[in-house]
Amino acid sequence: MTSNPGAASLGKVWFVGAGPGDPELITVKGQKLLSQAGAVLFAGSLVDRAATLYAPAGCEIRDSKDMTLEEMTAWLIEQTSKHATVVRLQTGDPGLYGALIEMARPLTAAGIEWAVVPGVSSAMASMAAAGESMTLPEVTQSVIFTRVEGRTPMPEGEDLASLAAHRTTLCIFLSITLMYKVEAALRAAGWPEDAPMLVVHKASWPGEEKILRGTLADIKQRCREAGVASQAMIVASPTLGALHWESLVRSKLYDPTFTHRFRKASA
Ligand code: SAH
């Protein structure tokens, strides 16, 4: 039936989101796949604990930090000839800054099946750590996941100043060493000096998480004082600090005067 009879015996590659760092924040499905894996290729220092905790004895576990993309895909392809389940373990969610498509294309070209298991992104974990909400009624109903330009150029129209003009929640990845660019962009978009900002270093990492709060005016200094210069999420949002606001617009979903599919208004 098939023109490639060997293909049926090849294993499948699973791109698994390991979550933000706490090994308990991997999904049940991700953990299950790891426990069945014959080989695991993990991305750097952030997710090694999940790999070593959940992978079975005898599983081939390899850190990808010294490998090129070509070497990684060659390794994954080679492992599928030996194992039914091969896991590529990535921080947070594999679809965010994870080179997912670059790795998947050669697999598809080689006739290897692959699938993605989503993960808890560090953006979610950072807001959770701080007890903050990404959205609030009549404050902002949108979230932008972005970064500032480093060696990877930003596509036209996506410079932070343009995005910040929307006054939504901004979760800024990969930019902690470029805080001066973040600040300049927010100022260019008219954010006031007292706009609240949040930086979370190693969100969810047991014993290592740092939550820094400040304003556009002082957040860089706060980071310097705390020695935070890597593995950090920057959040700028009009929702920050809402726990302590004097008044808040209520969410319609839980409003007693609001009828919806599951509940009739009581007033
Ligand atoms: N796919 C990942 C993002 C990878 S890009 C995700 O969904 O979270 C790497 C960037 O993610 C880092 O520069 C940092 O901005 C952020 N990051 C990853 N893990 C983090 C953590 N535990 N705490 C805070 N930021 C983190």
UniProtKB/TrEMBL annotation:
This is Precorrin-4/cobalt-precorrin-4 C11-methyltransferase. Its EC number is 2.1.1.133, 2.1.1.271. One of its GO terms (biological process) is cobalamin biosynthetic process. InterPro entries: 4pyrrol_Mease, 4pyrrol_Methylase_sf, 4pyrrole_Mease_sub1, 4pyrrole_Mease_sub2, Cbl_synth_CobM/CibF, Siro_Cobalamin_biosynth, Uropor_MeTrfase_CS. Pfam families: TP_methylase. The keyword Hydrolase does not apply. It comes from Pseudoduganella violacea. Belongs to the precorrin methyltransferase family. SUPFAM superfamilies: Tetrapyrrole methylase (SSF53790). GO terms for molecular function: precorrin-4 C11-methyltransferase activity. PROSITE patterns: SUMT_1, SUMT_2. Residues 12-219 form the Tetrapyrrole methylase domain. Keywords: Cobalamin biosynthesis, Methyltransferase, S-adenosyl-L-methionine, Transferase. Pathway: Cofactor biosynthesis; adenosylcobalamin biosynthesis. Coiled coil: none annotated. CDD domains: Precorrin-4_C11-MT (cd11641). The keyword Acyltransferase does not apply.
